[in-house]
């Protein structure tokens, strides 16, 4: 059907005024160009309107260190390979000698609360066990690039069976260490570590040396089992589950879905959670044991094939390593894919964002709600010592959001 000339004219006038009004709400190019004064030679910025058109960029193709903004890519890969409703499992077996065997599958949120729930479930049918045997073979022992041997929580080691992020939160009361969490006892196993350290209070890390982190999970479980009246001989050791002879007595599924986990990952920027996800992706795709190399390869494949990113260098999934590299323009593709999930990110005013910080590195990426009610994507990477991505984003928010 052909449109009448009068109708065509009306549609043209309507479109002209609509676009004119929209344009008044968009930030002017001259205004955004002022951002360039805040972006040094070793920094980058790119800003795109909701349709994807880039409205400002500087050094956008330069490969820089993303720091913890990389967690957005790791999160996308988790949603792709594992799914938003994926739940980590932990299995409990009883062998012919009445030993309780625990097989971990990398649950990053296996906390005291979860172990209490598990102990109650086991206590309904198991009134006596001999020893507790811990199977952490689902992941291969992993050294994360960028992680040091410090006792800081951000250097927490990864593993298939870990509790409370491999940390113990303690305080000092009347000159003695006490638990800083009412749900978690301060076990002798952890107290020994605290007394040997120079840390006065806060969180202390359980390392992977001599299976310290896995054994701590076993000691904590044993404590809660005892609270439920389950008698034990008390020996806790590393071993393996043999499904052909061991009887499954409980399969515990985390109360947190992958979307829940990602929300906590982005809120707290938890390096441990990020690389637990990388290892879980590896085991899901290639079969156990999960390895960092295969997990990183899977994420690289996702970035290349699905997101069409061709300049990514990634060695782990949290952003703690300075070997990770990507351009701001490529990272814009991560934001485009993540946009349906922006509610999982930190939210402040008209901005949804993820930050990244290393010594001399400051990054920020996310979405700003403009004066026109639409969301603009932005990536800021400052790899110049002393520069601040937050300072640039505040300026940008003012220009776009008003």
Give the strand tally.
16
Bin the strand percentage: 15-25%
**What is the count of helical runs?**
11
- Sequence of strands across the biggest β-sheet: 2-1-16-15-14-13
Average pLDDT taken over every residue: 90
Q: What is the highest CATH level, the class of the largest domain? A: Alpha Beta
Q: Specify the overall morphology.
A: elongated
Number of domains: 2
**Classification by helices and strands:** alpha+beta
Name the CATH superfamily assignment of the largest domain. DD-peptidase/beta-lactamase superfamily
CATH architecture name of the largest domain: 3-Layer(aba) Sandwich
Alpha-carbon distance between the termini? Answer: 44 Å
CATH fold-level topology of the largest domain: Beta-lactamase
Radius of gyration: 25 Å
Share of helix among residues? 25-40%
Largest sheet: 6 strands, antiparallel
Task: State the order of secondary-structure elements, H for helix, E for strand.
Answer: HHEEEHEEHEEEHEHEEHHHEHEEEEH
Contiguous uncertain segments of 5+ residues: 8-24
